[in-house]
Amino acid sequence: MSTDKQSYKDKKVMTIGIISEITGLSQRKIRYYEERKLIFPERTKRGTRKYSFSDVETLMEIAEQIEDGVQTFEIKKEMAKKQTRDERNKMIRGQINAHFNIKK
């Protein structure tokens, strides 16, 4: 996705301290979710983690599921299923658009 067309929600501009304040999650917990490959911050050249508003939403969903007793490996499995569905739906939309010559 090019930076020009990237949604403001997906721009990685916030540090872990800000994310911790917004979500109420400790920085340690946020790093743990990254270790478990549930969240994927970008890194600056100096190694600072940068997060987006989409990451905030993901972290809040993870926190709610953890509160409900869902294990991190189960969350990761569900996230992978959702990503596969989203990719399949995007491909199908593209095929339909191509078939009917629909331009975005």
From TrEMBL:
InterPro entries: DNA-bd_dom_put_sf (IPR009061), MerR-type_HTH_dom (IPR000551), MerR_fam (IPR047057)
Superkingdom as given in the UniProt entry: Bacteria
Presence of keyword Signal: no
Name of the protein this chain belongs to: DNA-binding transcriptional MerR regulator
Alphabetical list of PANTHER family matching this protein: HTH-TYPE TRANSCRIPTIONAL REGULATOR TNRA (PTHR30204:SF65), REDOX-CYCLING DRUG-SENSING TRANSCRIPTIONAL ACTIVATOR SOXR (PTHR30204)
Molecular function terms from GO: DNA binding
SMART domains xref list: HTH_MERR
Keywords: DNA-binding, Repressor, Transcription, Transcription regulation
SUPFAM superfamilies: Putative DNA-binding domain (SSF46955)
PROSITE patterns (UniProt xref): HTH_MERR_2 (PS50937)
Domain HTH merR-type: 13-81
UniProt-listed Gene3D superfamilies: 1.10.1660.10
Keyword Repressor listed: yes
